[in-house]
Amino acid sequence: MVLRSIWRKIVQARSRDKWTVFYFVAAETADTVVVATRLSRYCAYLVAQKPELLPDHRAWTEELYEGVVQEVARVLARCAGTVVRYERAAACLGGSMNATLRKAAELGRQLTNELGGDEEAVWKVLARFWAELIIYLAPSENVTAHAKSLHRGGEFITVLWALLGHAGIVSRGLLIKHA
Questions:
Q1: Cα–Cα distance measured from residue 121 to residue 32, given in angstroms and rounded to the nearest whole number
Q2: pLDDT at residue 20 greater than cutoff 50
């Protein structure tokens, strides 16, 4: 974070250079990439490691997760090569037997098509989506799980749960009404 701040100051100080402007835009895009990927990975971590902190039934969450992980491994194994390009991965996942993966591949295609392939815009949409999703997931009636989480040092979602609870938002229905 400190390095990014220093980099932006250097870029702003040399803003007459066309390459500097390019790097500044790239740094801004990098921020949205970081937000989108970190929140996405955090949600995957919650599903895999802390399903008790999520609103859905733990057994259902675990079953869905295991099914998707197995299918992703199976489908991507068919995509030859150690590095799979986005287009090839999307095509492979779109042909999956798993409805969740097919929907994900279709949504990815729709997003890139609607935004005309503008990578920066795609990452902005993804960053906003994951930020809104984590806020949507945070309200929970499972006080015991969050109390245990706080006792162990807390999870980010537990901090959000506490903040939303303090604001009087204790269920997703109330969250939607506040939006």
A1: 9
A2: no
